[in-house]
Prior knowledge:
- This protein is α+β, with helices and mostly antiparallel strands.
- The protein has a domain at 27-76.
- It contains two helices and three strands; from the N terminus they run αββαβ.
- A three-stranded antiparallel β-sheet has the order 2-1-3.
- A hairpin with a 4-residue loop joins β1 and β2.
- The longest helix has 10 residues, at 9-18.
- The radius of gyration is 17 Å and the shape is elongated.
- It starts with 8 loop residues before the first helix and ends in an 8-residue tail after the last strand.
- The model has no long low-confidence stretch (mean pLDDT 85).
Amino acid sequence: xxxxxxxxxxxLEAALGRLRCVPHLYYGGGGFAGYHPTRYVMCGFxxxxxxxxxxYGCRGDGAHPPVPFALGGLQALMSSSGRADR
Length: 86
């Protein structure tokens, strides 16, 4: 989490506890953006998928297609082996 965030551990524990049966979960904010491989800049940032990439003509400008990435004040990653007792 970011160093300027206040974490309420009991509420986070309760929220994640309700999701314990979901394998391979990402919990947090995310975005999508294409990027220019030679200029190292992103093109078409969006919270919701590839819409901005297409709207701003990023493909025609040489950018790679949008990829999802984590951002925000908190991310939690969980993984499960698939066993019912975990």
